[in-house]
Amino acid sequence: MKTPLQRNPFAVEAWFDFSLTLTFAVPREELAARLPLCLEAETFDNRWAFLAVALVQTRNLRPQGLPPFCGQDFLLAGYRHFVSYRTEDGRRLRGLQIIRSETNRRTLAFFGNLLTPYHYTHRPLKMVIRDGVFEATDESNGLHISASPADAQSPLPANSPFPSWKEARRFCGPLPFTFSPDEERQRMLIIEGVREQWKPSPLSVHACNIPNLAHFGFTETRLACAFMVRDIPYHWKKGRYERVRTT
User: Is the pLDDT of residue 12 over 90?
Assistant: First the structure.
């Protein structure tokens, strides 16, 4: 059930120790069919649309202006569609529609569902870094991701639709905006993220078993690219609503 608080009612800030994003290509028509009319799938080669799985180690998440010791540390796994939205004044904004969020902290799952529409669940997520290799697991469902830093000369994943890392970088996330449609009231919740020193670098993915991908029901889901950023500040502005354009 939606509540009046589920709109990111105040600005939030945090520190990202790292953010790993694995982007998957899915058939354009299939993802577009799942979106509300006010959102459009971001596409490549008029064939592929994209969803991302992001693993983020966050420190000191707190309302903006509070000291760091008031914050929460947690590991997040977020599932997002790459979309765009046309504003009331005609601007086209690229962003994400968050479809599922998982965290290793029960407190974050509770307050995340109280204050945002991001569908948080508590999961036994773990992340370790050994010899430069990032290993993420959820022993309850078999999730296992293993990745390490790469460079622009490293190969893209097999079967990636992208011809180069430069093209792939447009879909490395997170994008500046997240969109949560309220179709009943014909309005869009827009939350803007503000990032600094954002320089994504390629990742080589050694293992990738993400059970939730099968639950989404796409006929094809192929790993397209993976990127990471490390040691950056991040904050989100207070959420705002606007009426959805009907034409």
Answer: yes
